[in-house]
Design brief:
By secondary structure, the protein is an alpha+beta fold. The protein is built from three helices and two strands, in the order αββαα.
Length: about 90
């Protein structure tokens, strides 16, 4: 007998056997979240699960962009290779 997949109501999701959920696309679009974004998981006093975006990755990327290239001219060509040679 073939298993029939139950249809889902808009805005609802189910917990899978691996305890995973799929967040509806409409909710993701409204929050601006995308693949790889980190979410903090909390439970409020009413027992609701609350997901809060942690802009950690965006903050890291911004920090890298702000500091990249800031040490130009500090190291001469080959100076890092000489330092590495001293470690051996």
């Amino acid at each position: 007998m073939a298993r029939v997949k139950l249809s889902r109501r808009r805005g609802y999701t189910r917990l899978s056997g691996k305890r995973q959920v799929t967040i509806p696309l409409s909710a993701l679009e409204r929050t601006g979240l995308g693949p790889g974004d980190e979410l903090k998981v909390d439970v409020d006093p009413a027992g609701r699960i609350v997901l809060t975006p942690t802009r950690v990755l965006a903050d890291r990327r911004q920090a890298i962009e702000q500091t990249s290239g800031s040490l130009a001219g500090v190291y001469t060509r080959g100076s890092l290779d000489r330092l590495r040679g001293e470690w051996r």
